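Hey Z.,

So I finally got round to the coenzyme A thing we talked about over coffee. Here's the setup:
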Amino acid sequence: MSEPARAREAASTLQLCRIMGPNDANIVGNVHGGIILKMIEEAGCIVSTRHCNTQNGDRCVAALVRVEKTEFLSPVFIGEVTHVTAEITYTSKHSLEVQVHVMAENILTGAKKLANKAALWYVPFSLQNVEKIMDVPPIKYAAAEQEEEGKKRYEAQKLERMETKARTEEVVPPLPDPEDHPKERHTVGFSQSSLIHLVGPSDCTLHDYVQGGVTMKLMDEVAGIVAARHCSTNIVTASVDAINFHRKIKKGCVVTVTGRLTFVSNKSMEIEVFVDAASLVEAEKKKYRAVSAFFTFISLDKYNRAQTVPPIKFDGEEELRRAEEGEARYLQRKEKRLAERERQSAAAQS
Ligand code: COA
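And the result:
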């Protein structure tokens, strides 16, 4: 085997582990979904950047361009150790798929549980010229079926993101100012929240562009504030729908991350989160939408069990229309979850 090929094989998996501390969790000790998302992204970024640099040519950094829908399968608590395993599972000409597993270990009892599974896509950018997308060295597949399955996932996401790209690029009217809304509890305006953040060096990759995990963490934070304001209880992230990162965000930009409730079911809340960016220093200060996504949160009682969520008091046709769309997404997610569970139990029996 040649030296680059050997390096590539060694570089295609990675494991990170870290003990969860009070900084990672909310007041009752649940680790924030955003912390897990950030760790997942860090592992994905390391494994894909390392892999893409096992060839001659420009040095490069892999940037997150997409996260497939991900579910938080079990809660993680302060004192537990998270083991994040990332593996490159597919390469196209310019992109890589990384699958990540997060196991949470109780180091007192040795018990381990699967906390999250995610699939991320990265694209390598040249360090010399950030506009230049580099070719990705191909990985070796253990079997032809693995490559075929990967290609199917690649084609499916490509199709899906063409639609969301058109939607993201629409000129989106500014979100209503929550100050203009009646501050009646359980209205959309009551819980709508924004967070403004100046992108500094610690948020960025070697390119001086925001690391995808940092954006996901901010998005989860805002969605969590919206959920907690709506139901005034402890809340946790249950899942995040697929996110496409269509636009870069440069150091020195101000990002405004806004979350608003779109739909509540009996025990869950769907929150739409927008990330808008604008340069603070450059002449071109036009605000643009960098990314948007739907988060699902659950309200927890004092025994950490899911509990009923107050219904939304709607104000106007627009909010009702968004709720109808939210309900359709909710039903679709539920259907997919059930199908997946059935598939897993059939696989376990065979
Ligand atoms: N998900 C998965 N793959 C994606 C993707 C997405 N959302 N967007 C682009 N790609 C892949 C394409 O499939 C293509 O690979 P292929 O040739 O092997 O099929 C490669 O990226 C280039 O795509 P292309 O169509 O040429 O470029 P584009 O006009 O779609 O722009 C980026 C792609 C990556 C340059 C642009 O979307 C971008 O800059 N995104 C921001 C990345 C970032 O900063 N991430 C951190 C966010 S905080």
